[in-house]
Design a protein that fits this description.
With about 180 residues, this protein is α+β, with helices and mostly antiparallel strands. Helix content is about 20%, strand content about 35%. Strands 1, 2, 3, 4, 5, 6 and 7 form a 7-stranded antiparallel sheet that branches. Strand 5 and strand 6 form a beta hairpin. The longest helix is centred in the middle third of the chain and has 18 residues.
Length: about 180
């Protein structure tokens, strides 16, 4: 199992993206530019709104980020799906950090509410997860509620975010649809 640190810097996140943090075949983060945070500032199996753990990460915003150039022309905004993806990334990282084996896959989100946006003038986005449940059986499934906070203001809320970890040999036996149903 990986070193159970409570914070991770950018180099640690890149090591995870390359498969060096949790070992071959286990949870990885995507490589830049799809890696949606610069550091994890807190990770714990205790605390949070449900008492089952928390994860917090930060992303420094600058107007040269790739998505501002293409979304939308003359009206740049960070796509909401990238903020959602960051929350899925964090939940998968939490499962790997907790020692669960398998490759992570986003499975579902129960409800998402957008109340704001990330513009090129923003300085920092914080992603925060409150872990609700972790199932560690043949299927590893994490369920959490999350928030996206831009310059101190909550701009997205997501409930029942789900990520599963899958083993190559069980991938044909366990579909994402079955995993989503199992966590209901």
């Amino acid at each position: 199992m990986a070193d159970r640190k409570q914070t991770y810097d950018y180099q640690d996140l890149l090591a995870c993206a390359h498969g060096d943090l949790f070992g071959p075949g286990n949870a990885k983060l995507p490589l830049p530019p799809m890696l949606m945070f610069d550091r994890i500032t807190e990770i714990s199996e205790e605390g949070g709104a449900h008492g089952k753990g928390v994860v917090t990460a930060e992303f420094e915003i600058n107007p040269d980020l790739w998505f501002f150039k293409c979304h939308f022309e003359n009206d740049p905004v960070m796509p909401g799906c990238l903020g959602m993806d960051a929350l899925w990334q964090l939940l998968g990282f939490f499962l790997g950090w907790g020692g669960s084996p398998g490759a992570g896959r986003a499975l579902a989100v129960g409800e998402v509410k957008f109340m704001g946006q990330v513009l090129p003038t923003a300085k920092k986005v914080v992603y925060a997860l409150d872990i609700k449940r972790v199932i560690r059986r043949k299927l590893v499934l994490g369920i959490a509620d999350g928030r996206v906070i831009c310059d101190g203001e909550t701009i997205y809320e997501a409930k029942d975010i789900r990520v599963g970890l899958f083993q190559p040999e069980s991938a044909s036996e366990t579909t994402p649809e079955a995993a989503t149903a199992a966590g209901s």
